[in-house]
């Protein structure tokens, strides 16, 4: 895989991660309805949010490195 392909895959990954991030609250709606998980969902949402943001940041840093190296 060359740099251009890797950059494209990472950009596609970031787009998908951003969609998940934008709809995270909706995706946790069913979990919020479960009384056994009361009080845990906010922590879970914060964890997912931090994880997704970190993943996007890491991908973006790699994209920057690849673009810099391909010049």
Please give a structural write-up.
- The protein is mainly alpha-helical and 71 residues long.
- It is 80% helix and 0% strand.
- It has helices spanning 3-22, 24-27, 29-32, 41-69.
- Helix 1 packs antiparallel against helix 4.
- The model has no long low-confidence stretch (mean pLDDT 93).
Which key features would you list for this structure?
mainly alpha, 0% strand
Which regions have little confidence, pLDDT < 50, spanning 5+ residues? none
Morphology: elongated
Radius of gyration: 16 Å
Q: What is the number of helical segments per DSSP (H or I, 4+ residues)?
A: 4
Helix content: over 70%
- Terminal CA distance reads 17 Å
Q: Give the SSE string.
A: HHHH
Largest sheet: none
Strands, helices and their partners?
Layout (H helix, E strand, L loop, with lengths): L2 H20 L1 H4 L1 H4 L8 H29 L2
Helix pairs in contact: 1-4
Structure summarized in a few sentences:
It is built from four helices and no strands.
